[in-house]
Amino acid sequence: GSGTHFPIYNTEFGFQTNPPQAQCQCVFLSPTTAAYYLNWSEYIEFVNPRVRSDAQYLLYDAPGPPGHVTTQSVFSSGLAFLSGQPKATYAAFQLPLYLPSTSTSSGHALTVWGQVRPAPYAQRDSGSQQQVQVQFQPSGGSWTTVSTATITNSAGYFRVPVTFPSSGSVRLQWSYPAAFMFIPTLGSPVLTSRTQAITVH
Fold first, then answer.
1. What is the mean pLDDT of the chain?
2. Taking the model in full, what pTM does it have?
3. I need a surface site. Which of 26, 91, 133, 171 has the fewest CB within 10 A?
4. Torsion angles phi and psi, residue 15, rounded to 5
5. How many CB atoms lie within 10 A of CB 180?
6. Distance between CA atoms of 67 and 64, rounded to whole angstroms?
7. Rg for the chain (alpha carbons), in Å?
């Protein structure tokens, strides 16, 4: 019955996916839908001042008994399959993208929200302020950068208005600083978010 708005610490959060095939009566999402929900959820947390932390659970789908893919046939909420192959949620976690509205009239901007999760560490180690590209692709066309956002938030979040020329798809792209390009375990030096369809009337 307290009227106090206590802070919220989100310590385990994730969406279970199928694949992998699970053996319980649970709600499972496709990895693509889970990626969208993961970004949407983090946006909800971002705009709620009571939320103080967020933690993804798991990194990899947990191994289970012989013949099963997940622990107790329940937890398939990893960002990667047990084999190590990334799910769609992996890129969504690295470079979250969410548009509160995906439809607008010509000449009006849409709000693009996102996060470059590695940006604070890259800025600390390189001494350079990080920027992320907002890219657009019209139907049947090529990707082009239509806006560049400078990361000033200490956790790598940003929110910018962007006017798009037509309907199409939106994504984010960010490159590690040159000093990181030759780290063998880094993987691709360029991170790309999931894509989001938009409509311009």
1. 90
2. 0.89
3. 26
4. -120, 130
5. 15
6. 8
7. 18
pLDDT in tens, 113-161: 999 999 999 999 889 999 999 999 999 999 999 999 999 999 999 999 9
SS3 labels along the chain: CCCCCCCEECCCECCCECCCCCCCCCCCECHHHHHHHHHHHHHHHHHCCCEEECCECCCECCCCCCCCCCHHHCCCCCCECCCCCECHHHHHHHCCEECCCCEECCCCCEEEEEECCCHHHHHHHHCCCCEEEEEEEECCCCCEEEEEEECCCCCCEEEEEECCCCCEEEEEEEECCHHHCCCHHHCCCEEECCCEEEEEC
The C-alpha torsion from 153 through 42 and 88 to 60, rounded to 10°, is 100
pLDDT of residue 22 exceeding 80, the answer is no
* Beta-sheet pairing, 196-200 with 103-104: parallel
Confidence of residue 20 (pLDDT cuts 50, 70, 90): confident
Torsion over CA: 105, 195, 48, 122 (sign): negative
Q: Between the ranges 75-84, 93-102, 117-126, where is the mean pLDDT highest?
A: 93-102
Q: How would you classify the pairing of strands 8-9 and 144-150? A: unpaired
Q: 3-state secondary structure string, 52-95?
A: EECCECCCECCCCCCCCCCHHHCCCCCCECCCCCECHHHHHHHC
